[in-house]
Specification:
The chain is an alpha/beta fold. It has helices spanning 19-30, 47-53, 74-81, 96-109, 141-144, 159-162; strands at 2-12, 36-43, 62-67, 85-91, 112-116, 124-133, 152-155, 169-171, 174-176.
Length: 177
Amino acid sequence: MESFPNMLMIGGNARKSGKTTFICRLLEACGAGYTIGAAKIALYDDEGDFARHHPEALPERYLAINEQKPGNKDSGKYLAAGAGESWFLAALPEKEGEVMEHVRAISRRNDLMVLESNILRKNIEPAFFVMINNPERTTKRSAQELNHLVDYVIYTGSKGFSEPGHYIAIENGRWTI
């Protein structure tokens, strides 16, 4: 497992659990004075599903979008919240190595990094892995399989969710919980 001591990884128990909202609040609360790279990773097991969501990424089977201005997509929201650079990466499993190289490059270019991903937790040892849990949504089996790797759980709607700066901070250039 590869170590990324400047990375805070955010996962979720389900789709629409609040990961992006939480990351934006965290960037707003903690980002001043640091260059923080942010990335959202989507790995697809099914080529048909990937093609439906990202037809522009075929036949390469890999999509890397460097957001240049704030917008409505999750990675554009990261920029609006204060990220120094923001990426959306989508791929099929055979391109996971390229995704990892991209993550390494983002990490090297920035003081700190926030990565929205569940699946990459199997390959990455971040400073902390925070799981956003929306109790109104059924927990995916893939998220359940990561329970032993979670450092901190934040529930959607809790004070930790609405005011992440009280629970997660940056001290001496490192993420702290």
